Amino acid sequence: MKQKEKLFKIKIEKLVYGGKGLGRYNGRTIFVPQTVPGDVVLVEEVSRKSGYSEAIVKKLLESGESRIKPKCPYFGKCGGCDWQHIEYEAQVKFKRNILEENLQKIGRIKKPNIDEVIPSTSCWNYRNRAQLKVKNGKVGFFAKGSHQVVDIDRCFLLKEDIQDIMPKLKKLLEELPTEPSEFHIYSSSKNEVLLKIVYSGKFKKVNLTIEDVRKILEVNLVGFGIYKVCSDGYPERIKFFGRDFTYETVGKFKFRVSADSFFQVNRFQIFNLIDKVSKAAMEHQYNLAGDLYCGVGTLTIPVGRYVHRAFGVEANFSAISDALYNKDINGLRSVNFYCRETEEGLDIVKNHNPDFVVVDPPRSGLSQRVVRELANLPRLRKIVYVSCNPSTLARDIALFHQYGINMEKAKLIDMFPQTYHVETIAFLRKVK
Prior knowledge:
Layout (H helix, E strand, L loop, with lengths): L6 E5 L2 E2 L5 E5 L2 E5 L7 E10 L2 E11 L25 H18 L8 E5 L10 E7 L2 E5 L6 E3 L14 H10 L6 E6 L5 E7 L10 H8 L3 E9 L5 E8 L2 E6 L2 E6 L11 H13 L5 E5 L7 H5 L4 E6 L2 H13 L5 E5 L2 H11 L3 E4 L8 H8 L6 E6 L2 H13 L2 E9 L9 E8 L2
Parallel strand pairs: 4-6, 7-22, 12-13, 17-18, 17-20, 18-19, 20-21
Antiparallel strand pairs: 1-5, 2-3, 3-4, 5-6, 8-9, 8-11, 9-10, 11-12, 13-14, 15-16, 21-23, 22-23
Helix pairs in contact: 1-9, 7-8
């Protein structure tokens, strides 16, 4: 490719983690968003890096067989979705391919055993929460790769009761003395809504009652809070009005989820996640289960039903408060929880010396120290690794392998339809 040659024709071969299509031109790899395998596109190079280029579609010449018309009018502008232009069945197939390729290339597993792929019951209205950006009266999501707010009136990924809440939030803006930077909204399975109004700078006192806000939003609002972003980037609670928690029921388990805690976002897949992880604990008579990044006990409590004892470690104090409450309402005396940063929590893990471990880390995966300390647990027999990033999962699996811990199988649970994100449960066993 000549330096000045910016427009050229390519065929998209596959999709990669990150959501873009991959094609080639004169031997050079080209990444193009909003494409599907089989697309023939005229593209324009927008950036050139060592070994590859980024490009955008200027004209679609031939359509790949899985290409469809996006449902949302904001698709392509709003950064919330990546794959609305792809049939859902094909989305799941492409995610499986991406997971397999990452496990092969990064995880160094020749033939990864992906023994189950679980699509979402619905690929729309599955999200129970959203962090909406606010700027100059606009309410929506950032445009892809920018901090420009795309003003939207509806999001088809959100639950039905909150999917069209954006125009009402704009009405709420008119009643606030200072414009916030974000609205965080959560709707439970019983349609109980929690709202966080987040400010990034100075703001004036909010003189609204919960009845005022409920009337404006026209949802079953049970509580709302005022928050300010701290120096570490996380919102700190200033004041809360009404109830600051709701309840979720998943199968035979009940969970209290507070406004400052995290719960899985896909309401149709939470049961499947719990079911697959807890069944792994049933395979043998494990003595003690440890759960790192345990949240409100979403996995610790179900696993605790099938082992002699269990414990969870979590840095979020609100989540640990919920977890301690949740173990009581689920009647589990043999489960305990500790509020610690992960690195500090390793001392607790080593002292307990579990034989069954669950980890559900952020996208960055596990640190080398966490992998090493877990691998060196004397009684360790099994690790269940829940991941939302196949690249860091594969990296960590390769590192575990160096310590004699191998991946037996993996299950893909599609938590995030219309996006490139891949949720995986990997089952690792210590080789004797």
